[in-house]
Amino acid sequence: MSTHLDQPPAAELAFDYDNLLKIIRRRYSVRRFRPDPLPDELIEKVLEAGRWAPSGANHQPWEFIVVKDRDLIQRLGEVFLREEISLRSGDPKFNWPQYSYVGEAPCLIVVCADPRLKRVINRPRPPENREKTFLFSIAAAVEHMQLAATSLGLGGIWLTVQELDQYELELRQLLKVPDPIRIAIFCPIGRPHAWPDINERGVHTRRPLRELVHHNTYDVSRLRSEEQIEEFVRTVTLRKGKGSWETETEASRTALAERLTGRMLRWMSWHRVPGLTPVRVEELRARARHDPRVRLVRLFADVEGGQLMCVSEAATRDEVTHWFEACGLPAAELSQLQWEGDHASIHEIALFEHATQREA
Ligand SMILES: Cc1cc2nc3c(=O)[nH]c(=O)nc-3n(C[C@H](O)[C@H](O)[C@H](O)COP(=O)(O)O)c2cc1C
Question: Does 24 or 11 have the greater pLDDT score?
């Protein structure tokens, strides 16, 4: 018997994969929006994508509050700002994202969910399993909406709402969310301030597939050690502050550009150097000063995290890579900078400079 499943439109699907992956790779957490208002048709398209998300036993727990009222958005943004301040004071070393943009977004989609619908999910399961399925399902709807937004030239972000927290209470009151409805995720949405170049490392840093994929069974020889995990955590924590670099002020970016320009910034490289010491950093700087070809503009070092970032005005890629080799530096991720409008790189450099100074 033939069913519709026997006839996948293979050619069409193959075509769609390329577009889908393009959208997936283009999506990023947007923390700076253009002020342009959003037409309702676009918002509806985003919501429609959320509605079609899969959910455990099809329990469809989600409900969406679309906030476009400027005054309300500002008041909600203030709650996030206060939360940010309190988070920062709780753990000043952590690179907390900034929330100043929330009140400036043209639209907020507040993703709520009704926990009573968990009853649809298999009863014999322990309640915590049903809770997991409930949360996973909400996440599926959120990601559908994020991708739909990207496909429409919009951007958004997931903002976690900590439940049973004083800020959640304030949000509930402002949005008039009744019990037992839960507020799961806040999604500011709008036209992104910029679309960073996806080929630039840093915008979408992701672990490579070869690190993540196991065939048939888990390859235990690749189970990462505690040290490797710690190193990863440090790396992500140091470089993660996209919240910060997306919302760097114009002034600080201009100041950085002024300090760095006047030179041809052609190359930016990032190296992992386990066992890095301050002496080694100084040695590398001295070596660079005496090498006429490398033309190093900046060398930022995070000694504790074992990371280096070099910015160079060398004429060719070979000249820089030759210098790395001569210094015994491990192979680098090397990006070519296009200074004009290359905000992703400027932000990345700014972040690294900020982070390394703070560490010092
Ligand atoms: C479940 C989830 C919760 C998140 N919560 C927050 C959040 O509370 N605040 C924030 O600034 N970003 C949040 N993010 C965004 C992540 O920081 C971001 O996805 C990650 O750093 C990868 O960057 P990218 O989205 O630009 O690729 C969240 C993302 C997910 C998937």
Answer: 24
C-alpha span between 254 and 259 (Å, rounded): 9
How many angstroms does the Cα of residue 193 sit away from the middle of ligand 1?
17
**Which atom of ligand 1 has the smallest separation from the CA of 139?**
1
Q: Where are the domains of the chain?
A: 24-190, 224-242+249-359
Taking CA atoms only, the protein residue closest to ligand 1 atom 28 is 158
Report DSSP letters for 222-265, one per residue.
GPPPHHHHHHHHHHHHHH-THHHHHT--HHHHHHHHHHHTTS--
C-beta atoms surrounding 257 within 10 Å: 16
Q: For residue 70, count other CB atoms closer than 10 A to its CB.
A: 12
CATH code of the domain made up of 224-242+249-359: 3.30.70.3090
Q: Shortest CA distance to 324 belongs to which of 249, 271, 265?
A: 271
In this structure, the residue with its CA closest to atom 30 of ligand 1 is: 158
* pTM of this structure: 0.69
- Position in ligand 1 atom list of the atom nearest CA 143: 31
Say whether pLDDT at 234 is over 90.
no
Q: How far is the CA of 260 from the centre of ligand 1 (A)?
A: 30
Candidates 3.40.109.10, 3.40.250.10, 3.20.20.140, 3.80.10.10; correct CATH number of 24-190? 3.40.109.10
Q: Which atom of ligand 1 sits closest to the CA of residue 160?
A: 8
Rounded distance between C-alpha atoms, residue 158 and residue 143, angstroms = 9
Q: What is the pLDDT of residues 315-348, one digit of tens each?
A: 677 888 888 888 888 776 666 654 433 444 555 5
20: number of Cβ within 10 Å: 13
